[in-house]
Amino acid sequence: MNPKAITFDFWGTLFTEGPDFSAKVMPARYEALLDACAEAGHPAEEAEVREAYRQAALAFEEAWRAGEVMTTFDRVARIFALLGVPYDPGLVALTARRLEETSLLAELQPLPGLEAIKTLARKYPLAIVSDTGVTPGRLLREHLRRAGLLEAFQAFSFSDETGFVKPKPEAFHKALEELGVEAQEALHVGDLPHTDIKGAFAAGYPWAVQYVGFRHENGQVQPTRVIRSHEELLSLL
Keywords of this protein's UniProt record, alphabetized (predicted)? Predict the structure, then answer.
């Protein structure tokens, strides 16, 4: 492998949510939704909010697997509909923003070998190509800043900003255009075969490395290599 640039997935490749997420972030999200219901004059019970949140999360998963972007605004609008809260776009937007901001309440957990990113950045232009959920790209940048890694990346393609989810080639091409590199000159690193590996090859990459330091999923498309730590990239390259 002799790439001119490297793109990375974010979730499950660089970071995961970590132990504080369930303890700090989720209660804050439920609280934000309960407050919004009260503001709308339609109070709800926490159990109802939790169930509506769960159903909206399933809808997000379905949309993602269908290659569609479901924004946090869309998710909150669905939650309100499930709870019978009257539709108010201003309140939906405000609540969506509140849900997004909760992600900053917990530090993300770095995955094995993350310290190699700074070493790679000294030799290669790096970019992130990532699908986003409730936490949008602007806040993923903040998490990178907190980890001291924001400056290591020269380009970003987050689905909430581009409108494209992996494995759509456009998701990858957006980042490559910012880097000024052709797909046939790039390497992608990600954990999911059906989005990262399949998508990178579909976008024209000659190399796609599957990262299994967090989880190992099998897929129909075989990666160029499999690594358990980003440190392994240093020797591969």
Answer: Hydrolase, Magnesium
